[in-house]
Predict the structure.
Amino acid sequence: ETGVTQTPRHLVMGMTNKKSLKCEQHLGHNAMYWYKQSAKKPLELMFVYSLEERVENNSVPSRFSPECPNSSHLFLHLHTLQPEDSALYLCASSQEGAQGDEQYFGPGTRLTVT
Amino acid sequence: SQQGEEDPQALSIQEGENATMNCSYKTSINNLQWYRQNSGRGLVHLILIRSNEREKHSGRLRVTLDTSKKSSSLLITASRAADTASYFCATDARNSGGYQKVTFGTGTKLQVIP
């Protein structure tokens, strides 16, 4: 248990569906991240939130929409996805400000787009 | 091109042997971290080495950092079957906004045969 939970753990959705991924951290951290992990590709940073403000958006298509209502919760809203969006989506949190912040990862949501 | 690239991509050893994985990166860093990922799960932080450090130990793990060569190595001594996992290096730099930006490599898949 890393103190970061993600739900659901598995999700199968059609290209016309709308769904949301949820991440919650119980560590008192002030930064949260969404990553995408596809087979045989490096971990891709999608979004970074620091103090509930989005500070990085790595050219992610608009069909992915993040939301950070408070420092403990992070959502990734999905709509009109493509089959190539199938991947493991990982959430992480860290405490910004200290040099060398380690990131604590959730178990991930395995997303399959059909 | 990747900021962090691990070498080898895959490694298979007998239980009890040592495993060495290497990571090369391209730009200046604040620190370098190693993470481990069991199949289909989130990443777990193993060890962090700062840019002004050359070597660090944690249990059976030994990490070295050579900033002149922009490379790091992770040594796992006396390997166990439970060490079977993927290992990632992650470099930590600050982006233009001053926020932490961690970039992960492609990973080394380690298999320890009982």
